[in-house]
Amino acid sequence: MKLIEEEWKHKITAVALRSAKETKRNQQVLLPTTADLVKLKDYLDAELHDATKVLKNCVNMENFQKLSSVILCRVMMLNRRRSGETSKILLQDFEKRPNWQLGHNTEIINSMPLTEQQLVKRLDMIEIRGKRGRNVSLIMTPDIKESIQVLNQKRHQVGISETNGYLFPRGNGDGHIEGHVAMRSFASKAELEYPERVGSTNMRKYIATVTQMMNLNDGELEWLSNHLGHSINVHREYYRNQESAIELGKVAKMLLAVDAGNALADVRKRDVDVAIDESGSEQELEDDGIGEIAVEVAMEGGQDVGEPDARFDKTQIDQPRKKKASKTSTKIAWTTEETEAIQKLFKKNYNLRQVPNKKECDLAKQKEPALYRRDWKSIKYKVYNDIQRLKKT
């Protein structure tokens, strides 16, 4: 036993880890394409509507199983949940879910943008048992919830056993529908370009990879990781793949700039922790639009994620940059009225320690007349500097 304790980590564990890493080296991870996921989502939405209508009019086991499979796949796809977890949702988890609207913190709700407030009112949620016994959440849209209610109303009419406690029961016995089998079947029927890439694990890796381009802060990344049912470290190490396009585009751009001697001119660190001129004369804190990539790009746009960066092109790498004439700007002190307006409009940003983007700054300027003489960069720099001061307190 002593020999095992002393040599196990060196002769077994280390070798196993090294072998696993060597196996993954130069192995391309083929994730689902955005176009395929959008097509599958539209297909499942149409099937959900039709199957719900059919079961209402004609109650039999075949129609019941069809609707059950559609709902299972739609929930799995929306929440990027593991197929095993979704398949094993219990009927009591759905029926005994609380009325979340009664327990919401009004202060938190009011700090959210209007879009998020509407989502809180419109969507429902249930908590289920996830991997290693942890509680994980499932979000349901109104049409999914309605279809589940229809399913539950008809389960006894089609002969589902009283002892079967699963929300998505199999026709005979006490088992449940297998999520990966149902997903594979619908992926094939939806006539996708790459149906073999669609599965719960690959969809989880897809959202983890795509959200790299959304530039999530630590708080948002933690929320996403908790929803997916794993820690941030697992999210970064095992699910988030360094997409080859990111490596060849973003990283290669920086390396080529350094190689051409334009590093100081072309490579800029995002959100540099330095004092920034709130008049808008400095350019350290740039808004390159990455933070504004919306979720619908990944789910509804059907286009590749990421935009060409206008700051870097071939001419910038091959030719020396021309020096721009220095600009002079007059600093305008922030009045008490302006400061109060900023603190009111960006209350959420201060709480989350999150710098607003251009769209948020422009919207704030439209809402508050006191900010008429400020451009969006000045507003952004003001919030940024305030956040840096809050971090130091």
What do you see in this structure?
The structure is a single chain. This protein has helices at 2-24, 34-57, 61-79, 83-87, 91-95, 100-103, 106-111, 114-122, 142-154, 179-189, 200-210, 218-228, 232-239, 244-259, 263-266, 295-301, 314-318, 336-345, 347-352, 358-367, 376-392; strands at residues 124-129, 135-140. With 393 residues, it is mainly alpha-helical. It has three domains: 34-198, hpI Integrase, Chain A, CATH 1.10.443; 244-318, no CATH class; 336-392. Helix 20 packs across helix 21 (376-392). The protein contains 21 helices and two strands. The protein starts with a helix and ends with a helix. It is 57% helix and 3% strand. Strand 1 and strand 2 (135-140) form a beta hairpin. The longest helix has 24 residues, at 34-57.
